[in-house]
Design a protein that fits this description.
By secondary structure, this protein is an alpha/beta fold. The protein has five helices and twelve strands. It has one domain: CoaB-like (Rossmann fold), CATH 3.40.50. It has an eight-stranded mixed beta sheet with strand order 5-4-1-6-9-10-11-12, with helices on both faces. Strands 2-3 form a two-stranded antiparallel ribbon. The protein is globular and about 60 Å long.
């Protein structure tokens, strides 16, 4: 199989040096890329800015913004069998970023934010026989929000993630497949969890 995996954060600049982002480290996405390669698959890893070295034998494409990640994912998905969407893509971007550094002034300033493109939902809407697995980072109403994402983004499965997992080497997740029930909590190193998710993608693809 050929996997498309997204990882890390995006950065949405409002002037030439300042940006909106989040604390995603990319560890889960990089672990997934390594797990897929270890199981004999080809991997295209689209990564936002993180301080990690990509796994060996992985095609790595580095991006900054949500728009860049969307463009690359859209172009590569055609030749992939499965996509695992772990990137913490910013939901909003400044409407009119400045091309110079904004100087500090003794007054408030308003920044208008526009929604970014939903990469996972887009790939889910065009997947055909391909597999799309999404991630849901939730800090309240966990199940309701994750179940909504599973349906809205046309995923085959959703991985429920929590803020405690950010930057950690170990994590606890739960998985919901379309038409199924929530799994029991899955705890372990991110590499162990990644192996389980890759095997899930293999099983889902085998039923197509």
């Amino acid at each position: 199989m050929r996997f498309l995996i997204t990882a890390g954060p995006t950065r949405e600049f409002f002037d030439s040096v300042r940006f909106i982002s989040n604390p995603s480290t990319g560890k889960m996405g990089y672990a997934l890329a390594a797990a897929a390669v270890a199981r004999g698959h080809d991997v295209a890893l689209i990564t936002g800015p993180v301080e990690l070295d990509p796994p060996a034998d992985v095609e790595t494409i580095r991006v900054i913004s949500a728009e860049e990640m969307f463009t690359v994912a859209d172009s590569l998905f055609e030749h992939c069998d499965a996509a695992i969407m772990t990137a913490a893509v910013c939901d909003y971007r400044p409407a009119r970023p400045l091309n110079h550094k904004l100087k500090k002034q003794a007054r408030s300033r308003r920044i208008t934010l526009l929604p970014t493109k939903d990469i996972c939902a887009h790939l889910g809407s065009i997947k055909g026989e391909r597999v799309v697995i999404g991630f849901a980072m939730e800090d309240h109403d966990h199940y309701a929000h994750a179940e909504g994402k599973l349906a809205r983004k046309h995923c085959d499965a959703i991985v429920l993630n929590g803020p405690d997992n950010i930057g950690a080497d170990e994590a606890t997740i739960e998985i919901l497949e379309i038409g199924g029930n929530w799994s029991a909590p899955v705890a372990g190193t991110k590499q162990q969890i990644a192996d389980r998710i890759v095997r899930l993608a293999e099983r889902l693809k085998s039923t197509r």
